[in-house]
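R.M. (postdoc): so does anyone remember the format we settled on? I'll just put the structure tokens first.
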């Protein structure tokens, strides 16, 4: 063993290494803020190794962690997996990274994740798919951690866990296709969810012939597995459709049918209709449609074709279009008759499943949605929302019964 001191203009640290074709940490290793450290060889953090990443860490080969890998809360350090060969990320202990950049073009699937890594701030998916499925790995996004640039070029093929985020896009896919799901959760930051996408049939254990009678056709080519590890709320879930993976019949628009999210129910051993609202996405995206609904349980989800819902006449009329341009016409989301049921709640979500408005005791005078965000930090509060299709949930007490209505709301900002 040799104690080595490295000093250069961009780095100042010391650590214990062994001279071999590996970079091995046996003690304390720190990358200070605003410094850089690169390893061209396999990096191995031994059980007694404490590795603090507050600067930039460039990894060009394999990475193994059997000790402690972490960062300071005040740092902005980034770890770059930028090898020119396939890279195995493994270890017996969870590696805690603040920021990661995945950028490896040596193969379509250059990253093999066989351990658990946890992200505190952000992951940038630039190039290279992370195979966590084959290698039984998992990527965890901590509270308030997000990601950017996920696409068909780079995503997680396997399990992704999310801790505490109020709304989140799961950067998941399979077989070279990025197929995210979007979850909006209640304000309980202790909620934990794990999601994985499968570009394959759900198999004989979940037969598509076992379904509610109202379901016409089920997408047998793909499904999502959504697990609630911790929490009790029922999320608002959005699933995407892609012409590369979703059967063509699900893109055919008919006057008497619509798309819905369906879930395999273990109690009844059948696929059940969770309903949903469909929105068209921007041209050029890897996926072109999205279906959104508030789920009643968890497990396996996919898309289905169902008969178009015919509204049942009652004393509540929802006007599902607003034009908040100040001309006094349709400036707010009008629910005619809601004043008779003051014990109510209205929630509105954008097409990504992010809540932009919620209110109790919604009425026809002062508590009304006027096209401005009153949502969370991910959507600017008091900012005019862009034109487009939104999803609403209306709940109100009628005697001893709780009525639930869902549907779409269109915002038109034309003057």
């Amino acid at each position: 063993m040799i104690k080595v001191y490295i000093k250069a203009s961009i780095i100042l640290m010391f650590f214990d290494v062994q001279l071999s074709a590996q970079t091995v940490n046996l003690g304390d290793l720190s990358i200070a803020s605003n410094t850089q450290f690169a390893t061209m060889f396999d990096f191995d953090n031994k059980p007694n190794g404490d590795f603090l990443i507050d600067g930039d860490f460039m990894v060009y080969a394999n990475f193994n962690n059997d000790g402690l890998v972490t960062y300071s809360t005040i740092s902005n350090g980034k770890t770059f997996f930028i090898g020119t060969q396939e890279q195995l990320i493994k270890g017996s202990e969870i590696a805690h990274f603040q920021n990661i950049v995945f950028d490896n073009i040596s193969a379509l699937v250059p990253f093999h994740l066989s351990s658990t890594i946890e992200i505190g701030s952000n992951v940038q998916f630039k190039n290279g798919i992370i195979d966590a499925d084959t290698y039984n790995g998992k990527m965890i996004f901590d509270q308030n951690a997000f990601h950017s640039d996920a696409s068909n070029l780079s995503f997680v093929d396997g399990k992704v866990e999310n801790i505490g985020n109020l709304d989140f896009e799961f950067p998941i896919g399979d077989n070279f296709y990025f197929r995210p799901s979007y979850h909006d959760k209640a304000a309980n930051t202790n909620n934990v969810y794990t999601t994985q996408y499968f570009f394959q049939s759900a198999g004989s254990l979940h037969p598509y012939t076992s379904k509610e009678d109202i379901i016409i056709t089920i997408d047998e080519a793909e499904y999502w597995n959504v697990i609630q590890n911790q929490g009790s709320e029922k999320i608002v879930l959005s699933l995407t459709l892609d012409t590369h993976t979703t059967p063509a019949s699900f893109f055919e628009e008919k006057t008497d049918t619509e798309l819905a999210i369906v879930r395999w129910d273990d109690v009844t051993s059948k696929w059940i209709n969770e309903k949903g609202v469909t929105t068209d996405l921007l041209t050029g995206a890897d996926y072109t449609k999205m279906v959104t609904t508030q789920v009643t349980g968890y497990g396996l989800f996919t898309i289905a074709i169902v008969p178009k819902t015919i509204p049942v006449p009652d004393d509540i009329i929802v006007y599902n279009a607003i034009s908040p341009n100040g001309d006094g016409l349709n400036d707010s989301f009008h629910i005619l008759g809601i004043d008779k049921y003051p014990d109510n709640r209205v929630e509105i979500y954008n097409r990504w499943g992010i809540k932009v408005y919620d209110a109790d005791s919604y009425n026809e005078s002062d508590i009304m949605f006027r096209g401005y965000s009153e949502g969370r930090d991910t959507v600017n509060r008091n900012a005019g929302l862009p034109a487009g299709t939104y999803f609403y949930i209306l709940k109100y007490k009628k005697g001893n019964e709780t009525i639930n209505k869902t549907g779409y709301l269109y915002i038109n900002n034309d003057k």
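R.M.: ...and that's the designed sequence above, right after the tokens. Also worth knowing: The CA atoms of residues 43 and 231 lie 37 Å apart. Confidence is low (pLDDT under 50) at residues 1-19.
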